[in-house]
Design a protein that fits this description.
The chain is α+β, with helices and mostly antiparallel strands and 191 residues long. The protein is built from four helices and eleven strands; from the N terminus they run αββββαββββαβββα.
Length: 191
């Protein structure tokens, strides 16, 4: 799939569905960006969090964070946080649509993911405090069913599927980031 095809499919699928929203409650509101870049084909951008950040230490995540009271909305929060974390100017991102809200159990967040196309070349600048490095993963690798590992875990008496993508160098996409990625791939597949 080319980047142009992925962008068109993403825009169409997200516009043609009703998004699941989690409203209210005690959970902290957060927003992330699911950035698409052109690298001889589409790639998604992830961050590796530092080992000294407050939550999700050392994990692979999409760039983003808490919604600030001064943010006009979830997209603005995702763009602001992404620029702070990895130096991606919000003006270079073409928003394609929002995915379903995702809750985290351990850290008590409601995450609103926005998919966006990065229209211009960018030099990643991880902030060093929250973000150790930026990781670009070819979309074809993530979309390959053989790359997804599914495990079942018990939590609060219920059985849950957990998703994992093993990356080069021992990094693993899991947790809320893996659930967001799986949801995005399912939406693209028409599910």
């Amino acid at each position: 799939m080319t980047t142009v095809e992925l962008v068109a499919l993403t825009r169409g699928r997200l516009a043609g569905r009703e998004r699941r929203m989690v409203v209210g409650g005690p959970l902290v509101k957060a927003a992330v960006l699911v950035p698409i870049v052109e690298r001889g084909g589409p790639a998604l951008v992830f961050t590796k969090r530092t080992d000294h950040v407050g939550s999700h230490r050392g994990q692979i995540s999409f760039p983003g964070g808490r919604v600030d009271p001064t943010d006009a909305g979830f997209l603005e929060a995702a763009l602001r946080e992404t620029e702070e974390e990895i130096g991606l100017p919000g003006t270079t991102v073409e928003p394609l649509g929002a995915l379903d809200d995702t809750e985290t159990v351990a850290t008590q967040f409601i995450i609103t993911p926005w998919v966006g196309l990065v229209r211009e070349p960018v030099a990643w600048k991880p902030d060093g405090h929250e973000i150790e490095r930026v990781i670009e993963v070819p979309f074809a690798r993530l979309a390959d069913p053989a790359a997804l590992r599914v495990e079942h875990r018990e939590r609060a008496g219920a059985r849950h599927e957990m998703y994992f993508w093993d990356l080069e160098g021992g990094d693993v996409i899991w947790g809320a980031t893996a659930r967001i990625l799986k949801h995005y791939l399912d939406v693209l597949a028409g599910g």
